[in-house]
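Support request, priority: normal
Reporter: lab tech (M.K.)
Component: structure prediction queue

Hi team, I submitted a job for Haem-binding uptake Tiki superfamily ChaN domain-containing protein from Catenulispora yoronensis yesterday, and the status page still shows it as pending. I've pasted the exact input below so you can check whether something in the sequence is tripping the parser. The sequence length should be 395 residues. Please let me know if I need to resubmit or if it's stuck on your end.
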Amino acid sequence: MTTNQNSVPPRVGARLSRRGLIGASLAGIGAVGGLGDTARAASTGSGHAEYTASTAGLSTLADTVFDALERHRLVALGKVHGLREHHDALVSVLTDPRLPDLVDDIVIEGGNARFQPVADRFVAGQAVAAAELRPLWRDSTNSPLATGDEPIYEDFIRILRAVNWRRPNNRQVRLLLGDSPIDWSATTTPDQVLALRNGRDAFAASLIQREVLKKGRRALICYGAGHVTHRAPVAQPPSQTAAQRSSQPSSPAPDGLVSLIEQRTGRRVFSVVTLVPLADDPGGLAARLAAYPRGVVIPTAGTWLGAFDAGNVFPIVAPGPSGRPVNVDCGVPLGALVDAGFYPGRPEDLTMSRPNPAIYLDPVYWAELQRRNGLQGGMFDLSTPSRYARPELRP
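Reply from support: The job had stalled in the queue. We restarted it manually and it finished. Here are the results:
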């Protein structure tokens, strides 16, 4: 789950014991909208997104990415966390022969930048022990809410290593870890965690400026969908006077990674988000998408998708004019926020990646998750199965 770091804190699940977590992982508790643990692959049998070029103006995710990189230095892909179909489509991008010629760097959200030297060695093909590699995703600022233990995240890094293995050193793709460099062993107060967590997007924007743009490189940015939207102005009721508007608290669209990059550099980022309807599907997105073959990318420029209410796609919450939380994207056309949407398939056919339950039999790791939770005031309840179950899909 992605939340804006300058607005409300992440939603918190109920308590989960280690035994409860293992049981939840085995049973696949918490799948939503028909999401299950067993992937139902397309008729290709490969598990990758099926694509039928039956509709003019549509393309695969790989074709969209590489076409955009001919015109933009940065392309951002907004995911639904844990969604296997997004990962499958992303694998098609990683393994495309065009990748090394058009992508210099891949920036990921759930990687602790403190371990950048480890990531550099690993994706370059050097020997790295599993115990040294795991902190890349386990030690993020979002732990213990999110640990990155779903297998698709390690799989992504290993696939990039395999892609680089076939390339000479000067043609390899670098993996950039975009999460703030938190040292959990030296972190003892909630304020320490919050400061780094709230600065994640600003840290990543500086990283991309320094390591990508200033070096004349091109990058693929892989983040939660809420981080990759363009900044959009907030509509004010037309009946209000300027004096009335200025006297009320504002509810600006939260600044995510892409909007920060664009504000700081003036450089446009091409942004694609994975489209999964919210709970109860306000706006009827699922019905509109059902007419398309799964695995296609739909542009927002000049299409119904561009005019679709973004509030029915992104549940981004911030204080409104009354001071109460509101969805700041309600009434904003989706085309003002993103350039295209990737359709992974019908909600009832989508699947989630789940952690291996054996992970939580490790007493050292489990104790550390409990410590991190405790130093933040026990804000995450770790005693019932809904802790690791996602009650709804949110980008």
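The longest helix spans residues 151-165. The mean pLDDT is 80. Let us know if anything else looks off. Ticket resolved.
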